[in-house]
């Protein structure tokens, strides 16, 4: 993922509190980019280098005694870690070198990443957790993170700034112009590590599926979805998802969608008409009619959605639907469905719309 893509995806990851795990070779600027993101989003930045922690207490906070009224020790408690954000603070917490941490420290990371808390201490709601690691290749001495329970808590992303992004950074940072010129022609000389390929260990599970749903609802841009979703359910699954979404965009509406979700589906009808796909609107109306024939009930809100759908449809489609209901009223299983349709759909203003 490029720097520009990471910055674009961040607001959606942050809004859904989806923990991010950046994987990338050394020297690519993972921490520098996260500092930039924190600054651009008016967040404080705190860097916890897990590989340097020698005791879980460095992360969790040390224990202390709780004393009773008689001054005797009655229990123990954890003190709040010195790095813990204050209430109301907006902090990007960076867990660097996660796959260089000792296993007992990795266990302590679980609760922080999944629940945004440690013991009884909850992170302020505007705080966010990002972790980073070097890839598990022969180039690095790292801890095996094959623990699926830990990895499934993250959205894993390969961090790979483009040469152009690095050159832009070099110019902004005031590198010597001649040196920038040399780098622009010889990036292959300093990108030796970055060019080494590796695969992320991502395996889908139900927790990941729930996180994908949160991000879909957040409006994550389509061009970022394969990489972001691939970091949670695997690239193969993410690609199949996107193909499914693409193939289903131009399908007629189901009766249930018109009856119960029309506020969210109205744009689909407008899109069908813009595409000159009146056939899709007609088929949607047919699906609705078939459903009404055998329906047991029809609520007032569902009837209102039917009316909105028909008003959005071409007049011949709407008129055809109304005519079929009238002509085949004896085939409708429930009298109450017919009565609700006539009362809340076949209103004076609806009938008048055919004369305009």
CATH class of the largest domain: Alpha Beta
Per DSSP, the total helix count is 16
| Terminal residue distance | 54 Å
Largest sheet: 5 strands, parallel
Shape: elongated
Radius of gyration: 29 Å
Could you tell me the number of beta strands?
Answer: 9
CATH superfamily of the largest domain: P-loop containing nucleotide triphosphate hydrolases
Total separate domains:
2
- The percentage of residues in β strands lies in 5-15%
Quickly give the CATH architecture of the largest domain: 3-Layer(aba) Sandwich
What percent of the residues sit in helical stretches (DSSP H or I)? 40-55%
CATH topology of the largest domain: Rossmann fold
Provide the structure class.
Answer: alpha/beta
On the 0 to 100 scale, the average pLDDT is: 85
The order of strands across the largest sheet is 2-5-8-1-9
Low-confidence stretches: none
Order of helices and strands: HEHEHEEEHEEEHEHHHHHHHHHHH
């Amino acid at each position: 993922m490029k720097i520009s893509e990471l910055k674009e995806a961040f607001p959606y990851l942050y809004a859904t509190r989806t923990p991010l795990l950046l994987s990338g070779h050394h020297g690519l600027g993972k921490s520098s980019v996260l500092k930039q993101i924190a600054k651009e989003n008016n967040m404080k930045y705190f860097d916890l280098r897990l590989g340097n922690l020698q005791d879980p207490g460095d992360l969790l906070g040390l224990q202390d005694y709780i004393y009773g009224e008689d001054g005797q020790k009655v229990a123990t408690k954890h003190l709040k870690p010195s790095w813990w954000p204050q209430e109301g603070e907006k902090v990007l917490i960076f867990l660097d070198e996660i796959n260089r941490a000792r296993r007992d420290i990795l266990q302590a990371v679980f609760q922080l990443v999944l629940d945004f808390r440690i013991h009884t201490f909850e992170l302020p709601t505007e705080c966010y957790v990002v972790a980073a690691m070097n890839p598990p290749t022969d180039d690095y001495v790292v801890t095996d993170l094959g623990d699926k329970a830990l990895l499934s808590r993250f959205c894993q992303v390969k961090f790979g700034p483009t040469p152009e992004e690095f050159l832009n950074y070099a110019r902004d940072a005031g590198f010597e112009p001649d040196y920038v010129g040399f780098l622009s022609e010889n990036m292959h000389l300093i990108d030796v590590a970055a060019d080494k390929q590796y695969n992320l260990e991502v395996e889908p599970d139900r927790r990941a599926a729930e996180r994908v749903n949160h991000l879909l609802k957040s409006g994550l841009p389509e061009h970022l979805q394969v990489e972001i979703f691939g970091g949670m359910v695997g690239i193969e699954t993410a690609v199949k998802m996107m193909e499914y979404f693409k193939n289903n965009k131009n399908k007629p509406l189901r009766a249930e969608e018109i009856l119960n979700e029309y506020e969210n589906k109205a744009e689909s009808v407008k899109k069908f008409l813009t595409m000159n796909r009146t056939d899709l609107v007609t088929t949607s109306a047919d699906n609705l009619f078939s459903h009404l024939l055998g329906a047991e009930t029809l609520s007032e809100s569902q009837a209102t959605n039917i009316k909105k759908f028909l008003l959005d449809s071409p007049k011949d489609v709407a008129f055809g639907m109304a005519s079929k209901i009238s002509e085949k009223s004896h085939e409708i299983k429930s009298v109450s469905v017919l009565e609700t349709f006539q009362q809340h759909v076949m209103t004076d203003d609806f009938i008048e719309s055919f004369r305009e």
